[in-house]
Amino acid sequence: MNWLEALLLGLIQGLTEFLPVSSSGHLEMGKVMLGVNAERSLVFTVMVHGATVLSTLVVFYKDIFRLIKGLFAFKWNDETRYIARIFFSMIPVAFIGLFFKDQVESLFNGNLIFVGSMLLITATMLLFAHFKKSNTRNISFLDSFIIGIAQAIAVIPGISRSGSTISAGLILGNKKADIAQFSFLMVLIPIIGANFKDLLGGEISGEGSVGALPLMVGFLAAFISGLLACKWMIGIVKKGKLLWFAIYCYVVGLTSILFGIL
Are 143 and 172 in contact (CB under 8 A)? Predict the structure, then answer.
């Protein structure tokens, strides 16, 4: 992988991590179209995911400090309940990560027909969420678990994590402003945990990994584009304008299937 390929893939990761169009699906398509070996680029994938985690921390740093301050008040207050709901939402994806990791990783094989089909599912979820008009509910513990199931399903390449979790929250009737923040905060610990697990397990230190310059370029591209995309997506969800992303996913999904067939 050279620095230009790293720049393009970093931009794809930064933009699609927050926009509801599936970052994993776009990365798989990008690797296939650029001819990048998926197995050898595992370290790159971990780096750009780390960059988007940093983007989330920067955008929500005030909210995160407020939650930590409330947590260490050692009371069952609003902040403690919010953190508890975040942990509740992580149960499904933790279950998948612990017991079905190999099966999930086997799906990242550059199969454009499969990725395209999953993008069509993402598009349909966004379409349902776009036409859900009544959103007045606070996020309950049951809502958190259902949104967590949506996050667990989104480990499949082509299913957008932000798209599925935000769509699930909107379809449940959760407030638009609340569900965007919840969706982006609920993924922090799973991503950080998965990256540490790979580091400790030595899975990203093997020979043949990507060079230092492409890694740095990819990280910076993913971080900066992630910052912009995260702020943009918060505004989009508040306005409920998901229709254009549904159309985009339909077009890209069908294109991916066509490329896979030809």
Answer: yes
